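Example (one chain per record):
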Amino acid sequence: MTDLAQLLERVSNGENGVAARALVAEGAAAVDPVVDALRSAKGPSARRLREVLVSIRDPDAVPRLVERMDDKTVDVALGVFAALGASRDARATGPLLVYAAGGSTGELRQALAVEALGALGDRSATDALAEVAKNAEQDGLPLLLAAAVTSLARLGNHEQAPALLRAWREETDPIELTRYVSALTHVVAPGVLEALVESVKRSDDPETQREAFRGLQYLGSADAATALAEAAADPNTSDPSEALFRLRAITGTDEPADDLEPGVVHRLGHPLEVSDLIPLLDEASQPRVILDELEVITGERFGDPPIVPQGAESPRERAESWRRDNGDRFEAGRLYKFGYPQELPL
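Predicted structure:
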């Protein structure tokens, strides 16, 4: 077997350390072998191979990934579109826009393209994504609507958030309701706070409630803290410990706290400062939770790529480097979504 074949076999069999990093280090040369392996991979093996694909940062990989966008295997599509979004390479915008427009590509690939455009960060895609959101609402396509509205938020545009709220109000399917609530955690518009609070009462699904609690924490307002305290005390809440966890993130206690300032985002009882979140990466039992929060606030993916090359900066080191260069533009207690300042809904 060739060295690449040996590495692929080791990663597929569960070795996600040295072998995975070695594959990533191969850069563009690894794209075709990884994609070919994904065609027959299942379960955890497929997930590990997708992580390799998403972690490759070789510019020469982008044309190869574009060539594989038509592959009919679902795991290949998941890996290729995610890798194009993670590339932050403007050459991916045009091909992704073609898929985002729909037509014969199917809803799944259209949604994957829409998600990738948000991750790519190219604001030239805003008008196209807005059109997708409008059509998805009209045609009743929850997967596509949630993806489009979330990607628009990543690009600093929240104009389609009302469409998400309208769809959320009418949704009765538990799975789609969870999808909408997850999207609501990323957007800012009048009615979002109320929708997150109502979602906890409207659904007894643990995942839906967890997404609503996460969205309330990200708002960080006094009203959000009150809602979390009430949910934690409600015997009908599926996971009161999660509500308490999110409440403590806002107030630093198990109480809503009477001294929270109106119109201010709070963290641990104080107006939120991005610089205060970064040290929590060392303290958290689940650093992924803090990395997700930092991404929603700053738009920066400090935990990306998922497979870090040998000798590369850790997520904490990357976040500290970023803070030194960019931290001053984030005002304490201000609501931000993906690096863009917002007004806190009251």
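Caption: Residues 158-271 form one domain.
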